[in-house]
Specification:
This protein is 66% helix and 12% strand. By secondary structure, the chain is α+β, with helices and mostly antiparallel strands. It has a four-stranded antiparallel beta sheet, with no helix packed on it.
């Protein structure tokens, strides 16, 4: 006895639950978005490069601090000098042994102080770049994650459509065999079945490509993202006015902070150029000892000398061939460039934030519209199937209704992912995207 066949209406009604169950059973070790993001942080080359650049900037700042700290050196040496002297019993050869410690402490070096201040701002610049790289990694992992889920949904829906079309093809064949319909219905169903088969092959290949991209991003093989929970309620957009998001972007966006820091660095560079006219003052100290074991030409016996010194050294620049004046003019022009770059960055960020805000609102509206369209398409399919059974609808009507329903389901699944990605990108544009936002998305996923 054949097992009872699941009708297309019941199959469509339980399709979301069946899809989630198959995905979870097929991947017992499915990963959440947070787990894959943590893996990507330790593997992604782009993020690792930015992290290494930040560490290098911190070390470079410590190098700049050295210009404000004392320096000391130990010197030593042995030399032999031979001198021809036309005197009887003269000492023609002199051996000298020297050992000394010398040091200096900058007292007034404005360029060194400004260089150190610049290095501190460079650390802030690198920190903003690292924050931007972290947010970009969240977006890239989320994009790859939802790309796999969308490809899985597409493949599952195409396979379900193939099963439904196969059932419709069998029904048309039975009706033709008993003389209720013409061969046209069977051929139409076969053509639609062949088309869906081609779509299945393309969807399967697309899923493989999307999984490979996610594997490469997180450094794992065979990643299996957790799907969205059945009947999930997507979060609403808060705040719901674009001006609030733009204000946050102006305050927190790393790109704006980078441009502002670059302007501060340019202004410090102007001050450094102007400080080229100023003198420098250093405190110097030293202790040197010399030994002459064979004496010298003036003192023919062995002796030693010890010398201690302490002083202040002043260096006042007088003329450098107009290099300082031209350097000042150059840095002033670079400061104007940095100001223009900051203005351009602020405008671009504001425009991008507004565009993403309205795009996210549009995605939310599309989700609501497609949910209504899914219910309508389901009703239309059931009506066409009933009409086909009683003879008031033809086979192509049922096939078209099936195609419309499955296309609507695919569009709805993609719209949900677009809405979540839009909210993530909007937070990135506002500069408020943090890893904790990933856990909010994980709360929408199906449990293991």
């Amino acid at each position: 006895m054949r097992p009872p066949r699941l009708s297309s209406q019941r199959f469509l009604r339980h399709l979301p639950l069946l899809t989630s169950a198959v995905l979870l059973c097929g991947h017992a070790e499915a990963q959440s978005l947070a787990e894959l993001y943590d893996a990507a942080r330790g593997y992604d080359a782009t993020f690792q490069s930015t992290q290494a650049s930040y560490d290098a900037t911190v070390s470079r700042s410590e190098q700049a601090r050295a210009g404000l700290l004392p320096s000391a050196s130990l010197t030593g040496g042995v030399s032999r000098v031979h001198t021809d002297i036309s005197l009887p019993d003269a000492n023609n050869g002199t051996t000298t042994r020297q050992l000394g410690v010398n040091g200096s402490q900058p007292l007034y070096r404005p360029v060194n102080a400004l260089t150190f201040t610049q290095s501190q701002r460079q650390i802030d610049l690198a920190r903003a770049s690292l924050e931007s790289a972290s947010q970009d990694l969240i977006v890239r992992v989320s994009q790859a994650y939802f790309d796999v889920l969308a490809a899985q949904d597409t493949l599952g829906l195409v396979q379900a459509q193939k099963a439904a079309v196969g059932e419709q093809r069998a029904s048309a064949q039975r009706n033709f065999e008993v003389g209720n319909t013409t061969i046209t219905d069977t051929r139409e169903a076969q053509a639609r079945f062949d088309l869906v088969t081609a779509q299945e092959i393309a969807a399967d290949n697309d899923l493989r490509v999307k999984r490979a991209a996610l594997d490469q991003l997180v450094g794992r093989y065979g990643t299996a993202p957790l799907p969205l929970a059945p009947r999930v309620v997507l979060p609403t957009l808060v705040p719901n006015t674009p001006d609030r998001w733009v204000d946050d972007a102006q305050a927190y966006q790393p790109a704006i902070r980078q441009a502002q820091i670059a302007l501060d660095v340019a202004r410090l560079e102007v001050q450094k150029a102007e400080a080229g006219h100023l003198p420098t003052v250093d405190l110097t100290a030293g202790y040197n000892a010399s030994r002459f074991p064979n004496g010298t030409t003036g003192v023919p016996v062995s002796y030693r000398t010890k010398q201690a010194s302490l002083g202040v050294q002043l260096n006042m620049p007088l003329f450098a061939g107009f290099a300082i004046q031209n350097r000042v003019r150059e840095t002033l022009s670079l400061e104007e460039k940095a100001m223009a770059d900051l203005d351009a960055t602020r405008r671009n960020v504001a425009q991008a934030t507004r565009s993403l805000f309205f795009g996210t609102l549009s995605a939310a509206g599309q989700v609501q519209a497609l949910e209504a369209a899914e219910a309508s398409s389901q009703s239309a399919l059931e009506a066409n199937q009933l009409g086909y059974q009683v003879g008031v609808r033809i086979n192509i009507d049922v096939l078209n209704a099936q195609s419309q329903l499955y296309q609507t389901k695919r569009d709805l699944a993609q719209a949900r992912y677009n809405l979540l990605l839009g909210q993530i990108r909007l937070r990135q544009a506002a500069g408020t995207l943090v890893p904790q936002d990933i856990h909010m998305i994980d709360a929408l996923l199906a449990t293991r």
